[in-house]
Amino acid sequence: MAHQTMSFLIVVATLVFAPLCFAHNLYPQFYDHSCPKAKEIVYSVVAQAVAKEARMAASLLRLHFHDCFVKGCDASLLLDSSGSIVSEKGSNPNRNSARGFEVLDAIKSALEKECPNTVSCADILALAARDSTVITGGPSWEVPLGRRDSKGASLSGSNNNIPAPNNTFQTILTKFKLQGLDIVDLVALSGSHTIGNSRCTSFRQRLYNQSGNGLADMTLDKSYAAQLRSRCPRSGGDQNLFFLDFVSPTKFDNYYFKNLLASKGLLNSDQVLVTKNQQTMELVKKYAENSELFFEQFAKSMIKMGNISPLIGSSGEIRKNCRKINS
Fold first, then answer.
1. Is 67 annotated as a binding residue?
2. Four-CA torsion 145, 151, 155, 156, nearest 10 degrees
3. What pLDDT, in 10s, does the model give residues 240-271?
4. 166: CB partners within 8 A, 6+ apart
5. CATH of 169-304, one of 3.30.70.100, 1.10.10.10, 2.20.25.90, 1.10.420.10
6. Which of 128, 222, 265, 280 has the fewest CB atoms within 10 Å, measured from its CB?
7. Known catalytic residue: 3?
8. Distance (Å, whole) CA 271 – CA 285
9. CB 295: neighbour CB atoms within 10 A?
C-alpha cells in the first residue's frame, strides 16, 4: 500500500511540475545519455569568455532574447546570409550590437567533437544565457532542453518583434504578449539590464529631444543626464558604450531596479516601467527591495521565454555549424 501511495505521489508531483519543465516536450535531462558532458562544456566555454571580457555575459544573454522573440527559440538569429536566407544579424535591433557569435562557434565546435550532430544551436543559446547569468552572480535554473534548429531566418520578424529602446510602454507590452509573456515577465526580464552596455544611439533622444520639442526627458535625473551628455553628443559618437546599470555593471543584482526608482534608467524602455504603469512600478519597487524575489521570478520568466515555439521532434535540424543550415 505504501508503495502505491508513493507511486501516486510521484505521478502527482510530475504533473504539478510538468507545465514548467515539460512544456513542448522540452526537459532538462534531454542530453543526459546522448551527450552527458554537454552542459559542462557549454559552461566551461562561457566561463572562459566572460573571464576574458566581462561584457560577454550580457551579450550572450541578449542573443537568447533576440532569438526567441523571432520565430521562437530556434537559433534563427545565428544564421549568416546565404542562398535564400537573409540573416537577422542585419536587423535594426542586431546590426552593430548583437555580438558573441564566436563564443557560440567555440561551444558548438567543442560539442561536435564530443558528440557530433547531437546538441542544437538553439539549446546552446538557452544554456549560455543561463550560465552567463550564474557566472555574473545571478540565479540558476534547470534549462529545459530538446529544441531543434530552424532552416530559415526572418529579417522582418527581427525588425518588428523585438522591443526597441524608444518604443512606448504599450508597444513593448504588446510585443511581450504576442510571445505569450505577461507584464510580470516584462519587468523581470528587463532586469537583465543589470549587466551589459548600450550605445549612445539607443538613448540619445532622451538627452536632447525626447518629445520632439528639443528638450531632454523630464523623467531622467538631471545630473545623470549631464554625465551622459559628456560622452553622448547631439551628433557623432553613436557607438560609444554606456553601462545599463552604472552602479554594478558586471554583477547580476537588483541595482537596475534601484536605479529606475532614482530616475537613472538608461533607456527609455527601462524608465517607462516606473513612469507609465502602476503595476510595473509596484513590481520595480518589490524587486528593488528584495533581490531574492527578483531572482526567483527572473528564473521562471527565462524558462517561460525559452519555451516560445521551439522546434521539436522531426522539425528543423541539428546544425553542424550554427551559422549555416546543413546542406
1. yes
2. -90
3. 999 999 999 999 999 999 999 999 999 999 99
4. 202, 205, 268, 269
5. 1.10.420.10
6. 222
7. no
8. 13
9. 22
The SS3 of residue 76 is helix
Sign for the CA dihedral angle at 303, 67, 149, 52 comes to negative
pLDDT bracket for residue 10 (50, 70, 90) = very low
* C-alpha 253 chain-centroid distance: 15
**Among candidate residues 142, 131, 160, 146, the one with its CA nearest the CA of residue 71:** 160
194 assigned ligand-binding residue? yes
- For 129-155, write each residue's pLDDT tens digit: 999 999 999 999 999 999 999 999 999
List Cβ neighbours of 1 (8 Å cut-off, separation of 6 or more). none
CATH of domain 25-162: 1.10.520.10
Catalytic residue, chosen from 3, 24, 64, 66, is 66
Of 204, 202, 195, 129, the C-alpha closest to 162 is: 202
AA identity, residue 219:
T
Please give the Cα distance from 198 to 188 (Å, whole number): 19
User: According to the annotation, is 76 in a ligand binding site?
Assistant: yes
Determine the length of the chain: 327
In the chain, CATH 1.10.520.10 covers: 25-162
C-alpha grid cell, residue 17 = 511540475
What residue spans in the chain does CATH classification 1.10.420.10 cover? Answer: 169-304
Q: Which residue has the cell 529544441?
A: 147
Three-state DSSP class for 244? coil
36 is in an annotated binding site: no
Cβ-proximal residues to 240 (8 Å cutoff; 6+ apart), any chain: 199, 200, 231, 232
* Partner residues linked to 45 by β-bridges: none
Q: What is the pTM of this model?
A: 0.92
Grid cell at residue 16: 504539478
Residue 271, C-alpha cell as written in the block: 524608465
